[in-house]
């Protein structure tokens, strides 16, 4: 008990001392913070000071880097500036010559050659070349349209060669119709079909300007090069399309006019956007090419008969070996332009479809005498050329190279006119049709003649 009593006073003193320190510590905490804050301000140890030191270090470091780096030389420098500091120019060239690349780009070589020419001109002739004169020459310039160039520009805008092919197929359809030939109707039908084709081709180029600019085959078209304004192109298309459809409707017959208007709609509003969406554009484009001979037939007869459908079927099948072979050699261009073609996305299908329709031409030629459009000599005479294009189609299907595709394409160029020419020579005469009473549009006239006394 005595030992416990002896330990109590020291414990009590220790507790009192701790309580005193706790009270004084809590009271002095705010004062200590204020004191430390004043010390920090006196010694400038703040966040702003560290930030300032950081900026100073970065500025000094960048200054060293900028002194070490070689300044970028201007492509065009005033000759007086070069003559004033020749020593400095030589020193810089001497320093960077060991690290210069071995293969220089064409732009760097041309800029240095231009710089040397400017130096020599300044030394010999003492002439002053203004700064930026060369850059102004290389800027985009607005092309001025001259009246002498307008016919050629409009011809390329309307794809005059394609238009001529369309008119020729329409003329073949008119000539194959089993009715007497009428020159006035033939001229009106040909003119209206040609104007409708010009309108469709112009609208097609108007829609495809951003995509044609990426292709080597189409980058020189008038709208891409800026030789003609888009407004003028649209006005030209309207000035061709409206009179063309009016001629076909009023001067020929309403059925032919309706086919012409439908063909313009199909080409511009269906085929053109489908070229960037689906490979179905090839089949739609084949329908567009098959309508002109049907228009020629309806222009002559005024009715849509089996003969018109047969001519349309021949043109429909012919376009697949023709276009598929052409697109095979332009796969890179079509990929760059963003067009969805069979030759790009489905190369195997592209070759198979070309071969199928080459063989289909043999079958369609055999159907012609069955429908009483030609004599039986037509499938016999046309068999060699149909077999030859089928052979080239098989070569294209088997080899799948550029050589076979080119041969098939060039064969299609002379195959169609020769096939239509043979078909025309083997056409059944109008007298045979009249004897059988199978001439469209003539049965009603013959009945009226029998009733007359």
UniProtKB/TrEMBL annotation:
Organism: Rhipidura dahli
Name under which the protein is recorded: Protoheme IX farnesyltransferase, mitochondrial
Gene Ontology molecular function, alphabetical: protoheme IX farnesyltransferase activity
Enzyme Commission numbers on file: 2.5.1.141
Membrane topology term: Multi-pass membrane protein
HAMAP family: CyoE_CtaB
Catalytic activity: heme b + (2E,6E)-farnesyl diphosphate + H2O = Fe(II)-heme o + diphosphate
PANTHER family from the UniProt entry: PROTOHEME IX FARNESYLTRANSFERASE, MITOCHONDRIAL
Bilayer-spanning residue ranges: 255-274, 281-300, 376-396, 408-425
Protein family per UniProt: Belongs to the UbiA prenyltransferase family.
Catalytic EC class: transferase
Compartments where found: Mitochondrion membrane
GO cellular component term of the entry, any: mitochondrial membrane
Entry's Gene Ontology BP terms: cytochrome complex assembly; heme A biosynthetic process
Highest taxon of source: Eukaryota
Keywords assigned by UniProt, alphabetized: Heme biosynthesis, Membrane, Mitochondrion, Transferase, Transit peptide, Transmembrane, Transmembrane helix
InterPro entries: Protohaem_IX_farnesylTrfase, Protohaem_IX_farnesylTrfase_mt, UbiA_prenyltransferase, UbiA_prenylTrfase_CS, UbiA_sf
